[in-house]
Amino acid sequence: MNKVVLITPDRNDRPLLLDHCRWQMERQTVKPMDHLVINYDPKPGVVDIVPRVRMGVNLARDLGAEFCMIIENDDYYPDNYVETVLKALERFDVVGCDRSIYYSLQQNCMRIFNHPGRSSLYLTSFRISVMNDFQWPEDTMLYFDIHLWKEIRGRRGFINFPETPVGMKHGNGFSPGNYHNGIVNGKRMGGMVDDPGRKWLEKHTRKESFEFYNQNFR
C-alpha cells in the first residue's frame, strides 16, 4: 500500500458535505493509507485550520506515512485525484496547482483564479519530511495556504489536472474568508461567469456529485 494520508480539517458543521467528501475519497483509483478527519469541537467564531492541519500531519507521521494530501471537506475531487498527485510526488516534495476554480452554488457562477508560485490549500500535498523544519504560523491565521507555500522548503511541482478539482462555495458552516459563498461585502465577487442551468458544473463533475449538489444546494 502507498504511504499517503489524507487530512481533512472539519468543524462538525457540514455533515452532508463531509459525507460526500468521504465518499469521494473511498472511490479513488488509488486508495490512501488513511483518511484523517480532524474534527474536535471548535471554539465558535475562531479560525482554527492551522492546528487541525498540524494535528493531521503529526498523526500521519506517527502512522509512518510518507506523504500528506490536504482534502477540504466541501470541495470536488475527481476519482483519479490521489493517483494523479502521487505521481507528481514521486518527483517533487510539494505539489499543488497554480490555478484554482471556484464555483458558487448560491450564485450559479464560476471563476478561475491564477496565482503563480503557490496553490490553494485544497490542492496542496507534500512529503512529510519537508515539514520537519516548517515554521507553523499562529493558530488563528486565516490564509494558511499563502503562508505554507511561502515558507515550505523542497522541490515544487504544479499539476495541470486532466480532470478538474473544483473549490465549491456554498455558505454552509463556519468560514471567515470573504469569497466562501461567492459574495464579497454583499455583492457577487468580480470576474464570475454565469452558469445557467449549471451546465458547466454538470460537465465538470461526476454524475453522482452533480446530483448531490442539485439536491442539497439550490
* Intertermini distance: 40 Å
The helix/strand class is alpha/beta
Predict the CATH topology.
Answer: Spore Coat Polysaccharide Biosynthesis Protein SpsA, Chain A
Taken from the alpha-carbon principal axes, the silhouette is: globular
Fraction in beta strands = 15-25%
CATH class: Alpha Beta
Low-confidence runs of at least 5 consecutive residues = none
Q: What Rg, in angstroms, do the CA atoms define?
A: 16 Å
Strand order of the largest sheet: 2-1-3-7-4-8
What do the pLDDT scores average to? 93
Which CATH architecture would you pick?
Answer: Alpha-Beta Complex
Strand tally is: 12
State the share of residues found in helices, binned by percent: 25-40%
What is the total number of structural domains? 1
How many helical stretches? 6
Q: What do we call the CATH homologous superfamily?
A: Spore Coat Polysaccharide Biosynthesis Protein SpsA, Chain A
Order of helices and strands: EHEHEHEEEEHEEEEEHH
Task: List its salient traits.
6-stranded mixed sheet; 27% helix; 218 residues; globular; Spore Coat Polysaccharide Biosynthesis Protein SpsA, Chain A; 21% strand; alpha/beta; 4-stranded mixed sheet; 6 helices
How would you concisely characterize the structure shown here?
The chain has 218 residues and is α/β, with parallel strands linked by helices. Helix content is 27%, strand content 21%. It has a single domain, classed as Alpha-Beta Complex (Spore Coat Polysaccharide Biosynthesis Protein SpsA, Chain A).
